[in-house]
Design brief:
2 copies of one chain form a homodimer. By secondary structure, the first copy, chain A, is an alpha/beta fold. Chain A has helices at about 20, 25, 40-50, 60-65, 110-125, 135-140, 160-165, 175-185, 195-200, 205-220, 225-235, 240-250, 255-270; strands spanning about 10, 35-40, 55-60, 70-80, 85-90, 100-105, 130, 150-155, 170-175, 185-195. The first copy, chain A, has 2 domains: about 10-80 and about 185-270, Periplasmic binding protein-like II (D-Maltodextrin-Binding Protein, domain 2, 3-Layer(aba) Sandwich); about 85-185, 3-Layer(aba) Sandwich (D-Maltodextrin-Binding Protein, domain 2). The two termini of chain A are about 25 Å apart. The interface of A and B includes residues 22, 32 and 238 of A.
């Protein structure tokens, strides 16, 4: 008889994470973990607070709390070029954006928001005024904070993907594509991390979870038609749009992704209280 | 493109429900439902309130709300004889129980509690005084409501299974075995039901969920050694004890189970505001 507890693992119920969890529901691994489903920011908060052992964390929050966390090499959510679902939506062409645009931050992802700010301020040379707004495009562009008329909005997730496919006269700038144009590197939006103290006490369990995630992502690649069919059954996107989306998303961290992560950390330092990574990120090693 | 939503399905994270969910995590079905995990009473409440579409409901609550619900033929949680995890624990032999015993109700299952009351009052001829107490055996027998000394406790779930295996001098009466001695019938503790209005609007989805549960339970039977090994990894019971438990539990409703259900409904009527079932229970039919 034992006294072990299942590891508490976070789960983002967004479309972009379906390929990460697909295999867990086909290999029985979901029975070996204590899965907690919530929005990305809430999961980040819980991992930092110690209410979860392992889980996704938005890159900005990881950078702030890197001392307490170890990265798990996969999964991750990244893109080397367009990601389709992290967008700056403007009313007219980007070149026509005023010098001090009113920008709605219609996003609960701190990394997506920070990427939007970096690009607006450092690449496009603007000095925006920001306001946090409802997460849908119409609500964002009609935000009360801007007396009902924002010039642009930073959108993420399913709502951003919808705007990409149905811009309705707006201009949609893919922020991961812009990041690549700017830096030559992939953009990492979220990483999976384990609390350092949990990893030290339970290296075997963490290794199991890491390998289960790796197997799950591999299985999604093998069964991508079934993943697309399942998503198309429930999500308001055509199978072709879903297939393109899952093709763009990257779920592992190569050396190039780590270079992109470090570059983001370096450029993010002036906006956050996160120290730039020196030799990091530090990875969990099963030993 | 569609506007369907995944059905909201309740999930009891108790050991006795592992064989019901086992297959859902091996066939990918968990990706096709919106699973809500909670304690049995809370899931019953949510199904009745319309916050869930399909899920487990303790038999007593089903009987009270049968007008709004349709039974799904499987799964269920039942036993034809000993169930091991729904117990009356007494300090001495049952025959020595005083005429007006102090009985701790250490259970969040209204059906288990009502079964205990029925047996104490109608079969054993006692006139107990009851109090709701903490769910563990020691806490129940030392309940403040009885000045620190109850004569007996009704226990359910993992805590009851532990008392069965480690009675520590107490006497443990298996209430499902007593029910069978008394009535000749199986005892049904929980059923799975769908809200009538949801079933009328979404018969195809309900059929899918029903068949997925049926396949899941069948798969658990086929892979029972793996189910036991997974449970033994996390639960404080030896593999042999788990195998015996899963062998005792029954996850479907035969005609004999329905007779047991109706007999319980008939005997329960005097304790609850539930009308006795006439021709029911009424089942979901995919048509």
């Amino acid at each position: 008889m034992n006294t072990a507890s299942r590891p508490r693992v976070g789960h983002i119920a967004f479309l972009n994470c379906l390929p990460i969890y697909w295999g867990l529901a086909r290999t029985g691994t979901l029975l070996e973990i204590d899965l907690h489903r919530a929005a990305p920011d809430e999961l980040s908060r819980r991992l930092v607070a110690g209410d979860l052992d392992i889980g996704p964390i938005t890159l900005v929050e990881y950078l702030k709390h890197a001392e307490d966390l170890l990265l798990i090499p996969d999964p991750a959510v990244a893109a080397d070029g367009p990601v389709l679902s992290v967008d700056l939506v403007t009313r007219g062409p980007l070149a026509d954006l005023p010098h001090a645009p009113k920008v709605a931050l219609a996003s609960t992802s701190r990394t997506g928001v920070l990427l939007g700010r970096m690009l607006l301020e450092q690449r496009y040379g603007r000095e925006p005024v920001y306001a946090v707004t409802p997460p849908d495009l119409d609500g964002a562009l009609a935000a009360e904070a801007f007396d009902g008329r924002a010039d642009a909005a930073v959108l993420i997730g399913d709502e951003a993907l919808r705007a990409y496919h149905e811009p309705r006269g707006h201009h949609v700038v893919d922020l991961a594509a812009e990041w690549k144009d700017w830096t030559g590197l992939p953009m990492v939006f979220a990483v999976w991390a384990v609390r350092r103290e949990y990893a030290e006490a339970n290296p075997g369990l963490v290794k199991d979870v890491h390998l289960a995630f790796r197997e799950s992502v591999n299985r999604s690649r093998e069964e991508i038609d079934a993943v697309v069919a399942s998503a198309a059954r429930w999500e308001p996107f055509a199978p072709e749009a879903l297939a393109e989306y899952f093709e763009r998303l990257q779920f592992g961290l190569s050396e190039r992704h780590l270079a992109g992560l470090r570059e983001f950390a370096s450029r993010a330092a002036r906006y956050t209280n996160a120290a730039p990574l020196r030799d990091g990120p530090e990875f969990f090693a099963a030993g």
